[in-house]
Amino acid sequence: MLVDLPGGWSPLLGRLAWSQIPYANPILAPLFVAVVIGAIAIIGLITYYGKWTYLWKEWLTTVDHKKLGVMYIIIGLVMLFRGFIDGLMIRTQQVWAVGPHSSGVFGSLHGYLTPFHFGQVYSAHGLIMILLAATPLLVGFMNIIVPIQVGARDMAYPYLNALGLWITAAAAALIMISLFVGDFAHNGWFEYAPIFEMQYSPGVGVDYWIWTLQLVALGTTLGGINILATIIKMRAPGMTWGKLPIFVWASLSANVIALTSFPALQIALALVAADRYLGAHFFTAGMGGNLMLYTNLFWIWGHPEVYFVILPAFGMMSEIFPTFSEKPLFGYITMVLASMAIAGVSWLVWLHHFFTMGAGPYVNSAFSVATMLVGIPTGVKVFNWAFTMYRGRLTFNAAMLWAIGALFLLLIGGLTGMMLAIPAINYMVHNSVFVVAHFHSMLLVIVYAIFGSVLYWFPKVFGFKLDEFWAKTMFWLFSAGTALVFVPMYMLGFMGMTRRLEYVFNTGWQPYLDVMELGIVVYTLSVLAFFILLYVSVRDHAKNRVGADAWGTSRSLEWLTHSPVPFYNFAVLPHINERDEVAWRRQHGIDNVRPEHYEDIHMPNNTGVAIIMGGLTFVLGFALTWRIWWLCLVSLLAIIGLMIIRSFRGDPGYIITGAELQRMEEEAYRREAQIADSHHSHPVSGGVVGNAMAYQRNDSSK
Amino acid sequence: MDLNWRNWLKKGWRAAALAPVLLLGGCAHNPFWIFDPKGVMAKTDLFYMIVDVLIMGAIVGLTALLVVWFMWRYQKGKNRGMYDPHWSHSNTIEVFVWGIPIIAVGFLSYFAVRGTFEINPYNPTVITHHMKPNGDPVEVDVIATDWQWLFVYPQYHMAVANELVLPVHTPVFFRLTSSAVTTTFFIPQLVGMIDVMPGMRTKNALLSDHAGEYQGIASDYAGAGTSWMTFKTKMVDKADFAQWVQKVQQAPGSMTYASFNRFAEPFINVNHHLVYFSSVEPGLFDHVMTEVMRGKTWPIPPMMTENMVDYMKKQAAEHRD
Amino acid sequence: MSSHASTVDPKKAELWDTHHHSHDVISTRTLGYFLYLLSDGMLFATLFAAYGVLSYQHSYFGGPTPAEFVKPWYTFAQTIALFLSVLAYGFGMNALKHKNKSGLINGMLAAFVLGVVFLVLDIRDMSHLYSMGITLASSGGMSAFMVLTQVHATHIFFGLIWILVMIAQVMTKGFTEETVGRLLTLRMFWHLQAVIWVFVYIFVYLWGYIS
Ligand code: HEO
Ligand code: HEM
Ligand SMILES: [Cu+2]
């Protein structure tokens, strides 16, 4: 029943063979050497400083939602960097391969990438950026912020949380290894039927794509369940639904989307796998298959997915604007309603991604109108942010600049989205770089909101602020890059340039491509500025230490506890009286009132099971990709066995006594007082990066 | 459709769109294909684009100005505007905040629905409502392969690969299918996109009054050869068209299903070669479609174009047309 | 109006949770599991949609259609087995209320055996089809038929493993918060699979048989 494979297969190694390793590729081989050297250097450094036990005990086995969140964000940033390099490669190919007289190197006719490789680059770029950069970054922030904002000590299911992280890490590892072992899919981030069938994509690229996405879907579903349960069940006393911080609402609406839409993707992928592995005929053109079914299933997930990533970003903006306008968010209730409306309508519009597939005018116009309806709640959000600034006292620090940049990008992306939503316009610009420019405007809204949030919440997690000067430098460079890349792209869209061209047949487009290449250079500078920002901030961290309320004007609950947040979040859970609890306490001068006495609290133990599970899912994904059946079986059995063993062992957790808590809290208050006294004149010791959760707990686990 | 203000709008928009181009060097040819339509379908598309951009642009533009104004007025330390630390709700504003987008979406929906019917590729009323009873439209059967276009003219029993020649002032009706994967048929200045799918038939139509040469594109990614899967579209006078038909009908090649079977094998059309087929097996279009539905495929060799230069050599050695 | 039309007097307000309330572990766990089952339900909904699209005459492409090989009584036997299994599980859970360990284990064992009967019937059915040359590679329609029914069977398979694990846990650990919580979630899982089977039986087997 298994399909005939083009090329060899052996029971031991499946499709894997030496010829699958691109050791002769002039781009990949040096990159591989660099990666190996880098890995050896990192391993060497960790060994040299003797940090392995620290790494294992404090990070790799942790179930602390903040550390897991930080690791999510690190994965996201690494993948954002990888995706950026891909973007740079795409742009460089297109600026080079223009017209029949352009030169070619490395075996390609034009430019430096053959069609086969170019396809892999943009497919990996799209998939990585949306699912392994934006999603982990947002999930990371939700992980860190949501439990603190609802006044909980951890997520509802700490172990599950760790599992979600390591499965996401496995997905990232799988797509990264496709660089050096075999090849990645080359038909775009969403693939299409029937081009992903064995006849048209005989390599393992599509298989890598299937299992990477499948792992991401699994990880995101687990994370979504956790966040929803945390919000529903773990709220501090007094936190009614009407007092829920707005970012929590945003996370709620986003994860409702995730939980209900990812299954559609999982099924779509499973059916593609059935076609490719078992010879089924779900999406083939012949034998009773239906290729339009794939398109529908994919976008039934794919469209809600883009709102899954934008809603948390909206939530972040809704936190940043009030803090730096020194005013409550305008129209809290309509803001919540708008989030829910976006989540709801996001289900009814998927067909707008294929108006050109030949559905009748009734269907097309129904979906067109449904699509435009999303503009209403989104508009409400934009207006509410504007009126949050109205009669405010605005501070334009770097975090606020990113949020404002996001707002303007949203306007541009919204304008162009509304153009695409009308079939009569869509027929002209569908599949063109105009669409690419539209969705980059929108997806950059997310990137802007994320960088804003990095600046905004960094002091909460690490206890010191990032450097303002370099943060602003990065912002302006990044924005210049955005303008230089995406304005010409919109113009090229009006010139009829279609997307995914690895050879550009019209020499008239050259000047615009040149400007975009310049934009990429500016983007690269902004990436440099980001590294400098990190370096400078860590170097000067002692000068920039902050107390609980890092900005002095913040409003929601996370600012009530210390910075950096202790591993138990709140020694005594707060009782919530008002929607903007911290602002309210500050206003009435009771923000420094401490709890009177401390009681014992119960915390979960660390566990190494989650990371081992992550490793096993990676092995499973790899074995499935290469059709190494024995390895599939072994890793699957190991996963099931481990689950059973863990369910027998359980986790009793451990107790921190009230006295211990009191000691740690007093130390924290002392440190905060010191920061307040020092007026930044002399550095304060304690709490550096890595040692982020400065409070070492006495390890009673294991 | 014949309202005056439409033309007026179009002129204004075109002037605005052209302005930057003229500044850039003032070439006579407008590279903004979408703003320079030469066919009825594309023109209608442009009209709706203008309407949409005007409505949305007004709202989005004003919103942007409002935000900029607030940013200027309420900057901390400048004391330009009043600070009200508790103000966070106003029923009047809520009404506008919801009302304006609702009304705007209402307007846009009207145009969206109307436009969808006007250029419905299966029955575009902008073309069919103005057709003379004896307008003898030209029919073209389009078959996309990996990675060439075969245009069959069933009325003339002939076919052309990779070039489309059509008479002006004449409605043209397309039937489209693909032998391999899904791609999209697109001639930016004449007609919008329609997907071309294996084992299925889609339709499209165009009508143009402007002779000239226009770029045709395979606008959905179909594999390694997509970037070169372009075709020139020539709109010519009726007389020239008749002459051209005669020329093709004298060409040596002929197209049967057997020769199609060879034609449809993966071929990257780097040199944009054209082939004329003076005769075509009747019903070729349906024949291809049924074969594909029965499961016929033209598979891609593994790792195709891993090395493009080598691949092109191989392809040249095969001497295929 | 402002959101800070303070209703709470800051001087008297309660600022810290003095009642030391703790979260109910079992209900939190059940909620999470319910959410998971929601996504599992969506999974099946998508599969049913795919099946709906691929169950037209032309989807079978001249090959075998369910009408030719479905034996409604055979599948009805499967239905009965699964329902009895759910019922047995229910009796077991009733025993749990009375802290009756052996009653629970007996109920679970019965549920397990009946589940195995279901699965064996299914496997027999599939190998019979295979021997007639009907596989999921026969046509798009058959792909949808096979995948939908076998995804359900896979759920049953994992449910059976889980039942075994729970029998072992109850035997070794007794009724702890953990085991009781798991017994409750397992019940939700088992019920949902039975409900989904009803849909499979009606829409795939019966409807396929009739049309
Ligand atoms: C985060 C991501 C994101 C977001 C938020 C959006 C938001 C929107 N999108 Fe976009 N999109 C996103 C990401 C994508 N879109 C795509 C493709 C895509 C397509 C198909 C294009 C094609 O392939 O032919 C359409 C029709 C839209 C429409 C819209 C609309 C109407 C909105 C609306 O939500 C915008 C709402 C915002 C507005 C309107 C501005 C603010 C409102 C104001 C100021 C009030 C006034 C408003 C009115 C009067 C309505 N999108 C693709 C393509 C994938 C691919 O092909 O690879 C991606 C990735
Ligand atoms: C940082 C700057 C970025 C640059 C310069 C960039 C550049 C590009 C380019 C050149 C393309 C291909 C266009 C084409 O098909 O012709 C592309 C595609 C794409 N990009 Fe980006 N990008 C950037 C950031 C992002 C981000 C942040 C995201 C998502 C969060 C993203 C998501 C995508 C997607 C989904 C595609 C489509 C891939 C496909 O066609 O399959 N990009 N990008
Ligand atoms: Cu969409």
UniProtKB/TrEMBL annotation, chain A:
<feature type="transmembrane region" description="Helical">
    <location>
        <begin position="158"/>
        <end position="181"/>
    </location>
</feature>
<dbReference type="GO" id="GO:0005886">
    <property type="term" value="C:plasma membrane"/>
</dbReference>
<feature type="domain" description="Cytochrome oxidase subunit I profile">
    <location>
        <begin position="50"/>
        <end position="577"/>
    </location>
</feature>
<dbReference type="GO" id="GO:0046872">
    <property type="term" value="F:metal ion binding"/>
</dbReference>
<feature type="transmembrane region" description="Helical">
    <location>
        <begin position="399"/>
        <end position="425"/>
    </location>
</feature>
<dbReference type="GO" id="GO:0009486">
    <property type="term" value="F:cytochrome bo3 ubiquinol oxidase activity"/>
</dbReference>
<keyword id="KW-0812">Transmembrane</keyword>
<feature type="transmembrane region" description="Helical">
    <location>
        <begin position="329"/>
        <end position="350"/>
    </location>
</feature>
<feature type="transmembrane region" description="Helical">
    <location>
        <begin position="628"/>
        <end position="645"/>
    </location>
</feature>
<keyword id="KW-1133">Transmembrane helix</keyword>
<dbReference type="InterPro" id="IPR023615">
    <property type="entry name" value="Cyt_c_Oxase_su1_BS"/>
</dbReference>
<keyword id="KW-0186">Copper</keyword>
<feature type="transmembrane region" description="Helical">
    <location>
        <begin position="122"/>
        <end position="146"/>
    </location>
</feature>
<dbReference type="GO" id="GO:0020037">
    <property type="term" value="F:heme binding"/>
</dbReference>
<feature type="transmembrane region" description="Helical">
    <location>
        <begin position="362"/>
        <end position="387"/>
    </location>
</feature>
From TrEMBL, chain B:
<keyword id="KW-0472">Membrane</keyword>
<feature type="transmembrane region" description="Helical">
    <location>
        <begin position="46"/>
        <end position="72"/>
    </location>
</feature>
<dbReference type="InterPro" id="IPR002429">
    <property type="entry name" value="CcO_II-like_C"/>
</dbReference>
<feature type="transmembrane region" description="Helical">
    <location>
        <begin position="12"/>
        <end position="34"/>
    </location>
</feature>
<feature type="domain" description="Cytochrome oxidase subunit II copper A binding">
    <location>
        <begin position="135"/>
        <end position="247"/>
    </location>
</feature>
<keyword id="KW-1133">Transmembrane helix</keyword>
<comment type="similarity">
    <text>Belongs to the cytochrome c oxidase subunit 2 family.</text>
</comment>
<keyword id="KW-0813">Transport</keyword>
<dbReference type="GO" id="GO:0005507">
    <property type="term" value="F:copper ion binding"/>
</dbReference>
<dbReference type="Pfam" id="PF06481">
    <property type="entry name" value="COX_ARM"/>
</dbReference>
<dbReference type="GO" id="GO:0042773">
    <property type="term" value="P:ATP synthesis coupled electron transport"/>
</dbReference>
<feature type="transmembrane region" description="Helical">
    <location>
        <begin position="172"/>
        <end position="194"/>
    </location>
</feature>
<dbReference type="InterPro" id="IPR010514">
    <property type="entry name" value="COX_ARM"/>
</dbReference>
<keyword id="KW-0249">Electron transport</keyword>
<dbReference type="GO" id="GO:0009486">
    <property type="term" value="F:cytochrome bo3 ubiquinol oxidase activity"/>
</dbReference>
Automatic annotation (TrEMBL), chain C:
<dbReference type="InterPro" id="IPR000298">
    <property type="entry name" value="Cyt_c_oxidase-like_su3"/>
</dbReference>
<keyword id="KW-0812">Transmembrane</keyword>
<dbReference type="InterPro" id="IPR013833">
    <property type="entry name" value="Cyt_c_oxidase_su3_a-hlx"/>
</dbReference>
<feature type="transmembrane region" description="Helical">
    <location>
        <begin position="73"/>
        <end position="92"/>
    </location>
</feature>
<feature type="transmembrane region" description="Helical">
    <location>
        <begin position="33"/>
        <end position="53"/>
    </location>
</feature>
<dbReference type="Pfam" id="PF00510">
    <property type="entry name" value="COX3"/>
</dbReference>
<feature type="domain" description="Heme-copper oxidase subunit III family profile">
    <location>
        <begin position="1"/>
        <end position="209"/>
    </location>
</feature>
<keyword id="KW-1003">Cell membrane</keyword>
<protein>
    <submittedName>
        <fullName>Cytochrome o ubiquinol oxidase</fullName>
    </submittedName>
</protein>
<dbReference type="GO" id="GO:0005886">
    <property type="term" value="C:plasma membrane"/>
</dbReference>
<dbReference type="GO" id="GO:0019646">
    <property type="term" value="P:aerobic electron transport chain"/>
</dbReference>
<comment type="similarity">
    <text>Belongs to the cytochrome c oxidase subunit 3 family.</text>
</comment>
<keyword id="KW-1133">Transmembrane helix</keyword>
<feature type="transmembrane region" description="Helical">
    <location>
        <begin position="156"/>
        <end position="176"/>
    </location>
</feature>
<feature type="transmembrane region" description="Helical">
    <location>
        <begin position="188"/>
        <end position="210"/>
    </location>
</feature>
